[in-house]
């Protein structure tokens, strides 16, 4: 019976092995958001700009726990100056360590690129500094060599509940447009291929929007991992609003050429990532090459917070009041000669920055630029933006790429050393996602083989123990037990040794009766 019972354990063992196999599959290929190359996107840190207590569409490209890149159009007025009339906050998400955080953002902690041009959106970048609560040390790896990138991921983040810091699932897109197609809708692109990426994809509708909204940040794919590479700059549309546009193109400023600018402002290093050990541009005053802003006839560009409402109560991502009226060269010339203060005031009240739109009645919900019938802007050679001397004097000299290890501290050598920094992978010098999966698989396989080995070892031990009895001995024992069960136990003889002391009595007993 013992042997039969042991053999019956085979089915439970098979079920156990099946369960372990399913567990391994769930560990190696978890049901999480990923791109077509298998890049896990669920745990990548991201951040949002909050303006006057309201969520905006402006994402921040995090550098570390105290600084980030942001589009200058999100924090400036129509003239490219920092908008000090609004209050700002930064909210940061990270599902890998469940450490959501927030921080106030002071206008004095915003440094706009000195060559930011609000009329063309060239150098649409700014550096912000903050102190998150709760605080934790981490940093993000920034991709710097466009030639190494194997793919693209565009991301959009938002919160379901600001008070509880409840973040919604991250939306992603992967569609890239060619450089030639990107340049068709935005002339400045052709002169600055290394500074832009573009896509026609949008994230699903959100925040009561009537249509999809542009993604907030751009990541490049290298060796099956995603690395921060860019931030949303502006969109070019052929309608009066994004939702009425049928041929919208969205442009993203790549931050790689602005690493030195960030280091100069922050006075410390910025972690970078390159598979070929490339170094970032060391020019802290780098600016895009001059180029025409031209777009196809009748198209317009907008930037800033798409979630804010214009003075007509509509959103940039809401359906417009009607079909847009055609734009003429006369409209453009009038726009160039008129500063349109009413539009600027309306934008300031609603948290939007507007740069010389066609008229106040159009109710721009974000900064716009309109092209004439000839497809050119006559005022694109205007002011280059605020002077950079204040930012330069307030910051230490930028730190070269070779000195990043000492600048980052704690033995950092320019790669992410924290959970959730730019995903849950470590980069160079640490365990990658594939290595962690391999370790888990090895441990599980070891457990499986140990279980199977123990099972067969126990069965062998029991068989060996039984084989030590001969068949005749076993038969004799069984027959003995059968006799005992039928007639009871046989009487046992009692013997006593003879004693000299009672010799006579013993002899009589031995002789028996006479």
TrEMBL record:
Q: Where is the composition biased (Low complexity)?
A: 353-394
Region of interest: Disordered: 305-394, 407-427
Asked whether the UniProt record includes Signal among its keywords, one would answer yes
Report keywords, A-Z. Answer: Membrane, Signal, Transmembrane, Transmembrane helix
Q: Which Gene3D superfamilies match?
A: Trypsin-like serine proteases
Does the keyword Transmembrane belong to this entry? yes
Could you tell me which InterPro entries the record lists for this protein?
A: Peptidase_S1_PA, Peptidase_S1_PA_chymotrypsin
What does UniProt give as the signal peptide span? Answer: 1-33
Where does the chain cross the membrane? 436-458
Query: What protein does this entry describe?
Result: Peptidase S1 domain-containing protein
The species this protein was found in? Coemansia biformis
